[in-house]
Write a structure and sequence with these properties.
9 helices, Deoxyribonuclease I, Chain A, six-stranded mixed sheet, 2 domains, about 25% strand
């Protein structure tokens, strides 16, 4: 047998690496074809971790002196890096006058106190919450001193709430798709109106839920002209910034993502200490500017809170 066959010089010595490389090809292919089927799109959320696996695979092939294996790993890594590129954040401001915290409270979280304490310490102007039921709403409103509260609690993980130190001039809840609500509030900030939408779309883990996610985000993007240039959208998108669903929403809505989080820092699941998927986001329209963003700790549930500072003073 020719010892030069395969991904590595010696097929006997490198059989395990050959099999690992083949497995990575099988896993990575769906991430490149996310537009074909909803099931393939799930892999796209894990591109950053696939990139790590391919870099390590390339190093292993280099140690085994397999040029073909190194080339396969390098080319695949390059495609993954291209797929992870996202639009740069909008022009930054030095200081914001509106602090917003977005958090999925996890309706079934046993202890509400840690998140409530985190909100008290961070003291944001506005808290946008999803997965709020009656228990969470009672705990939040009794422990926190926010003069303006609007809520639509539910028992099916789709409840919404808004706590604000700025007057809430109007508040409405409507379905993005049947049974999947989003709330929109008009806030008075420095004597000027700001529109803030809170959403929680379904995770794309079935064909029906994937369609609901895409249709819901498309419907919200269609409100672009109605909401104007002082529009903030926050929520649990169940989509990473490099996913097709999120990229499409950004393109259709004209909004700019400002929430923090990179390839290897995310908001869910919160119990993973370093890594995670960045699926909770805040976006702003062209009449607003970002003045900073951060991801908080894991206080109560399975999501980390996202905090953003927004400059609303632009003319």
């Amino acid at each position: 047998m020719n010892p030069e066959v395969g991904f590595v010089k010696s097929p006997l010595k490198g059989r395990g690496l050959h099999q690992l490389t083949s497995l990575l090809v099988f896993i990575t292919a769906p991430a490149m074809l996310e537009g074909v089927h909803w099931l393939l799109a799930l892999a796209a959320h894990f591109r950053s971790y696939l990139l790590v696996a391919w870099v390590l695979c390339g190093v292993a092939h280099g140690v085994q002196r397999s040029i073909s294996g190194v080339l396969v790993a390098a080319v695949t890594s390059a495609f993954l890096v291209l797929g992870l590129q996202v639009d740069p954040p909008p022009q930054a401001a030095t200081q914001g006058d509106l602090e917003v915290m977005q958090v999925n409270v996890e309706m079934d979280a046993e202890d509400t106190a840690p998140l409530i304490e985190h909100i008290r310490e961070a003291n944001p102007d506005v808290v946008s919450l999803v997965e709020v039921d009656e228990r969470w709403l009672k705990a939040l409103t009794s422990a926190l001193d926010y003069p303006y509260v609007e809520a639509s609690p539910r028992g099916d993980f789709l409840g919404l709430a808004l706590l604000s130190r700025h007057p809430i001039l109007a508040y409405e809840v409507g379905d993005l798709t049947p049974g999947i609500p989003a709330s929109t509030a008009e806030l008075k900030v420095a004597d000027r109106p700001i529109t803030l939408t809170t959403l929680h779309v379904l995770p794309p883990v079935t064909g029906a839920w994937a369609r609901s996610q895409a249709e819901g985000l498309h419907a919200l993007a269609g409100e672009r002209s109605k909401r104007g240039t002082r529009w903030v959208v926050c929520g649990d998108f169940n989509a990473t910034p490099w996913s097709r669903a999120f990229r499409t929403f950004v393109a259709e809505s004209g909004l700019s993502p400002i929430s923090s989080g990179g390839w290897f820092s995310g908001t869910w699941p919160a119990w993973i200490p370093v890594t995670g998927l960045n699926i909770d986001h805040c976006l702003i329209a062209s009449g607003l500017r970002s003045a900073g963003a951060s991801i908080g700790p894991s206080p109560s549930g399975d999501h980390r809170p996202v905090s953003v500072s927004i400059d609303t003073s632009a003319p």
